[in-house]
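Worked example

This section walks through a single chain of length 311. The input is the sequence exactly as stored; nothing has been trimmed or padded.
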Amino acid sequence: MTETVKVNELAKAISLEIVTGSEVALDREITTGDVSRPGLELTGYFNFYSHDRLQLFGNKEITFAQKMMPEERLMVLRKMCSEDTPAFIVSRGLEIPEEMIQACEEKEIAVLSSKISTSRLLGEISSYLDGRLAPRTNVHGVLVEVYGLGVLIQGDSGIGKSETALELIKRGHRLIADDRVDVYRQDDLTLVGEAPKILQHLIEIRGIGIIDVLNLFGASAVRGSMQVQLGIYLETWEKDKRYDRLGTSDEMVDIADVSVPQIKIPVKTGRNVAIIIEVAAMNFRAKTMGYDATKAFEDRLTALIEENTQR
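Given that input, the structure is written out below as tokens.
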């Protein structure tokens, strides 16, 4: 599942000024996160022109264009205005050549402007588009932010994932998505999850129905998206099953081709799963910072054995 981004959505998301652009121009779709700096094209070299990309003009491009004759400038800019060119963007609040506006209006292409530097603007555009245009998949579960960590709670249907998430929300943590989590790869090691638009801020509790977390608990109880850093799998407690008691098993789960650490928590009557998940999140953070309680215990045990052996 791949989303598309319209020019007016990009302009709104990163606060771009619309210099010119009809409704058709602003409705054009951006299909790639790559952005073109058309320096060679201004010289008339179009052999490898990336016509389907956003065309970003910085100080170098505008300065070069200003030294061209008006007729030549209009001819080159007209050639840059292809049927699938999403928009022209000018950074640093630079003066926009009249020929650019004329050429773009002829082909119904928007001209946008920003006052920030070219490199910073390029970074903001790429970051936004990479997130929006990345291929998405959805997983069944609940994504919550616990102590700044994105925790994906999964398990069998009816085991209490949503109820656990509700308890975590009441304890001051934040909901990202309930029931279905849309995930995408931000890069090879980073997985980001968010709620589908229809399910944003909503959570389903059996016996009560659907509740609006934003309305009931306030804006501080929800978040739009979050990196998935830890997986929690809730499973029904089995009396004869052996469970990890020392935390030595390093299980991983693959989601969208990204490996995420996963902890399995057995659920039975009397266990406060929300508190266990809080502790699991804190312990995971401690491990990433270099402290491993299991290793500390094993070191103490080894030292104790050696001490008793020497006696």
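What to look for: The two ends are 66 Å apart (CA to CA).
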